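Fold this sequence, please.
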Amino acid sequence: MISTTDLEQLMAASIQDIRAEPAFFRALLDANVFVHTPKVEPPGRCQFVMFRSPDNGQYVIPVFTDRAKADWAARDNVRVLEVNGRELFRLARGAALMLNPNDARCTLYPEEIERLLRDGTVASVQKWKFENGGEEQIYKLESPPRALVKALRKALPEVRSVEIAYIAGIRWPKENQPDSLLIVLGGDDKVAERSVRAVATALYEQTDKSGRPVDVVHFDNRRARPAWIEELGLEPIYRRRSRKAVPVLKGYN
């Protein structure tokens, strides 16, 4: 079993360097963590206390890597329960978990939890502020990568908040920085982060094999599409229609 001290050290390393994240998440499966439960629970049932995330208002289960952090947050209003990480993830399937919400918080969405339980890993995601017209240059690809198109068509029907998707390229100003692939998702802005992370999780193996960095951006599909989509003449590689996902581009079957 992973000790609290070792887990905290791995977590600190992952905050400093994203390349250390896989080791932390693998350790999280074998470590004991702490959650809140009501002081009075129905017989034979285990209930976890949830709260609204300050990031997007969605309900999450707070999870603490240290007993002292859990006790401080409980403030004698709820019970603190110690549980194995793997067991917690299994019990809380379908819910989102927020690690250490009062300091360097990290949210794990259901798709990521399933991947962690299955493969012992989570796709690494770094946030960046996207503004077309900045140092990077977005351009239209002559032909979107077939493997990536197929992977998106397979993944996106399960990400129900995404209505439409495009693929473009990004050229960076640094000479030694390779071009990136850009996945553009249009959907419900309220769950934009979950949508992006769900796609990143689904494409983890595919993007890892492509040899090219992949970035994902999201726009609110209820509003006008970003002007650069039309300016570049991008065609959607996926569009959701009613209950059935309908692919748009041909020739990738």
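The CA atoms of residues 17 and 160 lie 32 Å apart. The chain has nine helices and twelve strands.
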